[in-house]
Amino acid sequence: MMTEKQLTDALRRRDEAAFRELILRFQPITARVIFKITGDKEETPDLVQEVFVSIWEQVKNFREEASLSTWIYQLSTNKARNHLKWKKLRTGFRLSWQSEQAQPPAGMNHSLNMALEMFERKDDENAITMALQQLPHNQRTAFVLSKSEGLSNPEIAAIMKLSVSSVESLNFRARQNLVKILLPYYNNKKS
Amino acid sequence: MKPPQSCPQTGELINKLLAATDNEAISMQNDPHLTGCPHCRFVIDQLTADLEKWQQQGPGTIAIDPTARIKSASANSGKLQPILVKVAAIAAASVLTGLIVSHKLIPASGPTYRDIAADYTLELSTDDSFPIDYFNEE
Ligand SMILES: [Zn+2]
């Protein structure tokens, strides 16, 4: 098995065998991260594919200040973020159009209610997946990289291009928000 | 339906489990509060199971073949070169044909002496309008 350095060099030489090895090695990580951040099973394969095409296209410009895996995590989290931005834009447009016909009740904790509604609708879905969808993108990314990928705060800081203390605080706020969403869910489940 | 049960410590325990490493999560199972509080025990057991399921969760088997995409991209960039060569060849041929045609069919460099002479040949026998006074201008 090639080292990350050998793999990078081979990719720069446009070695297709190296590209296949890269896919074999990094596809599970990329798919896991994108799926967990977006929660979008249908779109994940396309997004994963786009990440690998980006690697192939951009590897010439990849400066080895970070490791190859850090760079792939960066591309994956960025791809997920851009997908969500685009999706939000489309959904926002649709919601603003719909809201002309049906305004949500004033003072309603909209996002929490939406989360609970989703739990009810999709009982087979995992509670964590559903709760994570209610978190701001950076909190969600930090949580996924930490809890699912088992990365350390300095590693996450390198991927997200943040300071270690910012990552700590993102994870702290992510947990606080998850408690707010999960506590009523599990309390209701018990009853 | 039973009324919702709760315990003031559940939230704190959820937070603790979310922050825990795998080993810490295992040792949390022996937390003294959990052994005495069935509600928190239920919630923490549920959350532990959900977290484990979530960690193992992926998009399922995904069949992607980005090699096809990069091959078609390289094939397209490979196709571009012959196209550019063709375009250049056609342009060069057009210029060359233009030069030959212009050299053969169009008088080389403006009207020749012969042309001008022919144009202005005076047919004195027929042309009465020759401005004779022109020559006599004083
Ligand atoms: Zn309790």
Condensed summary:
The complex is a heterodimer of chains A (191) and B (138). With 191 residues, chain A is an all-alpha fold.
Tally of contiguous helical segments of chain B: 7
* Succession of helices and strands of chain B: HHHHHHH
What Rg of chain B, in angstroms, do the CA atoms define? 49 Å
Number of strands of chain A: 0
Please describe what this structure looks like:
The complex is a heterodimer of chains A (191) and B (138). Chain A is 75% helix and 0% strand. Chain A has nine helices and no strands. Chain A has helices at residues 4-12, 16-38, 44-58, 68-99, 110-121, 127-132, 137-148, 153-160, 164-190. Chain B is mostly helical and 138 residues long. Among the domains of chain B are: 10-56; 78-109. Chain B is built from seven helices and no strands. The radius of gyration of chain B is 49 Å and the shape is rod-shaped. The interface between A and B is large, with 40 and 37 residues. Bound molecules: zinc ion. Zinc ion (ZN) binds next to α4 of chain B. Zinc ion (ZN) binds at residues 7, 9-10, 33, 37, 39-40 of chain B.
Question: What are the key terms here?
Answer:
heterodimer, A: 191 residues, mainly alpha, Rna Polymerase Sigma Factor, Chain: A, Arc Repressor Mutant, subunit A, 2 domains, globular, B: 138 residues, 7 helices, disordered C terminus, binds zinc ion
Secondary structure: elements and pairs:
The complex is a heterodimer of chains A (191) and B (138).
Chain A: H1 4-12, H2 16-38, H3 44-58, H4 68-99, H5 110-121, H6 127-132, H7 137-148, H8 153-160, H9 164-190
Chain B: H1 10-19, H2 22-28, H3 32-36, H4 38-56, H5 66-105, H6 113-119, H7 132-135
Bound molecules: zinc ion.
